[in-house]
Amino acid sequence: MSRELILGIETSCDETAVALLADGKDLLAHVILSQDVHEIYGGVVPELAARAHLAVLDDVVREALGRAEVSLDQLSAFGVTAGPGLIGALLVGVCWAKGAAFGLGRPLVPVHHMEAHLFAPSLEDPEAEPPFVALLVSGGHTLLLHCESWGRYRLLGQTRDDAAGEAFDKTAKLLELPYPGGPQIELLARAGDPARFPLPRPMLRRDQEPGDPDFLDFSFSGLKTAVAERVSEVRRAGRLEEERAHLAAAFQSAVVDTLAAKTLRAVGLTGCRRVLLGGGVSANRALREELSRRLGPGGQLFSSSTRLSLDNGAMVAKAAAFRLSRGEIGELDLNANASLPFPGLSA
Ligand code: KG4
Ligand code: ZN
Fold first, then answer.
1. Would you say residue 226 lies in a domain?
2. Taking CA atoms, which of 50, 165, 306, 319 is between 20 and 30 Å from 209?
3. Domain co-membership, 106 together with 198
4. To the nearest whole number, what is the mean pLDDT of the chain?
């Protein structure tokens, strides 16, 4: 019997990634090309991202197929991130997938980028299946969900302003560290003392109760302002070099503390002690360790390797396999949507 072969394509931000997934579980090939054109600008420049995807996508697909020794006409379906993300960048992947699906007469499966992050841990751990409470933390989103089964998600909390990854990136910029800031801060924080600069825990107070609108929501913009104030004091005193690691540690500990506390509140409310951590910030070891410590021996934490935590094509192929199994196929008038709503999400 021939295998179901799904090509997953991810171009929503600054990674051009393509993966080939067999029978919804075996990763035959996975190529991720991170764009470096943005480095000198200290952040992703949308127009440059789109152009860079366009320049390399054909080659990235060819490389993935070559590694798996599979030809285009053997593919069963094309899964592609249709949103959310940068519109120009998304369009490159969506147009490519539409052309290929139409040309070969195969199904086109649109994928939601954040739902794809939910599927990433299950590529490496077959136990990473619902039910679970999910904390999704990326450069553009911070979501706390309860997932009872794939495709059915209840929104428990979300950020009111900056995403967790965005806060890492902005803080890194204040500390004069390169983009993306998350890994830089994590590295630096290991050498720092978080207690040296006490920072606020945003939107986290003891007197909050279930039902309060801010009980499970997040806010990171005030924390960024607090860091900016400490940085300018330290800079005025000519001490940025000596204090940088302490500032990074203080910031990381405030974010980790807040994310972990709210996730544990969600665990308490739902009674579900299985927690799934996804999105780029889930690569952060301090966050994983803190969540796992607070969950204790009675809980389970699911996350993926760093490669699959960051934007990648495998998670897109995996999410596409799920949507395809439900017969959810995109039409050829499919458009990319920069603010695509999360499928199956209820308030
Ligand atoms: O999911 P992702 O790769 O792309 C988006 O969908 O946005 O997440 C990227 C974000 C960036 O903000 C980056 O700084 C952050 O994830 N990030 C981290 C770490 N690695 C990546 N944040 C904290 N610690 C890390 N080790
Ligand atoms: Zn992402």
1. yes
2. 165
3. no
4. 97
CATH number reported for the structural domain that contains residue 278 in this entry: 3.30.420.40
> In a mutational test of the pocket of ligand 1, which residue from 168, 287, 307, 316 has the highest number of ligand atoms less than 8 Å from its CB?
168
Residue 344 Cβ contacting ligand 1 at under 6 Å: no
Instruction: Note the pLDDT tens digit of each residue in 7-51.
Output: 999 999 999 999 999 999 999 999 999 999 998 898 999 999 999
Query: What is the bridge-based pairing of β-strands 132-137 and 26-34?
Result: unpaired
**C-alpha–C-alpha distance, residues 7 and 107, integer Å:** 11
Q: Are residues 196 and 288 in the same domain?
A: yes
Which domain range does residue 143 map to? 129-303
Compute the average pLDDT of residues 249-267: 98
Judgement on whether residues 35 and 184 belong to the same structural domain of the protein: no
Whether residues 25 and 81 share a domain: the answer is: yes
Q: Separation of 263 CA from ligand 1 center, angstroms?
A: 18
Cβ count near 69 (within 10 Å): 9
Predicted model pTM: 0.98
Determine the Cα–Cα distance for residues 293 and 283; give it in Å rounded to an integer: 16
pLDDT of residue 127: 98
Report whether residue 85 contacts ligand 1, using a CB cutoff of 6 Å.
no
- Please list the residues that pair with 27 across neighbouring strands: 21
pLDDT at residue 205, rounded to an integer: 94
